[in-house]
Amino acid sequence: MGSPGQPPQGAAFLIAQVGAHAAGRFAERVEALGLTPPEVGLLRMIAGAPGRSQQSVAADMGVVPSRVVAILDLLDHKGLVERRPGVSDRRHHALHLTDEGRQVLMEMRQLARAHDDDVCAALDPQERAQLAGLLQRIADQQGLTPGVHPGYRQLGRRKR
């Protein structure tokens, strides 16, 4: 931490500063695809485990199922996901990407690589790998769910 009148210097502040900047830039980039970061995250989660239930996605995201349903409704309306009757319990929907959803996800992956390259442009490949390893150790120690942005927990909360 800096002294009075000095900018903060701690690693936690810098992680938060770069993280907020990167999240904002990412949101701007995915907006070009007509998506929001939570929608992208949900597409990625469905692609990683096709056929999973809305409830399991909500649990992984750390949000109430009704919030996932609202995002799924948007993605369904955009033609990117489909809900199929569950195999073992037809009351539960199995989530799958449509062909268009898979295409958007491929575009999203290219966009994410470009975003990573832009945010980490000041580092050489070895430094990037080292930074990623260090940040992964911090994420693991803090008990963060791999691949799930903690900002999802804010979805649907009332602003005060």
How would you summarize what this structure contains?
GO terms for molecular function: DNA-binding transcription factor activity. The protein contains six helices and two strands; from the N terminus they run ααααββαα.
Could you explain how this protein is built, in words?
Residues 1-140 form the HTH marR-type domain. Pfam families: MarR_2. This is Winged helix-turn-helix transcriptional regulator. This protein is mainly alpha-helical and 160 residues long. 57% of the residues lie in helices and 6% in strands. The chain is built from 6 helices and 2 strands, in the order H-H-H-H-E-E-H-H. It has a two-stranded antiparallel ribbon. Strand 1 (81-85) and strand 2 form a beta hairpin. The longest helix has 21 residues, at 11-31. The model has no long low-confidence stretch (mean pLDDT 87).
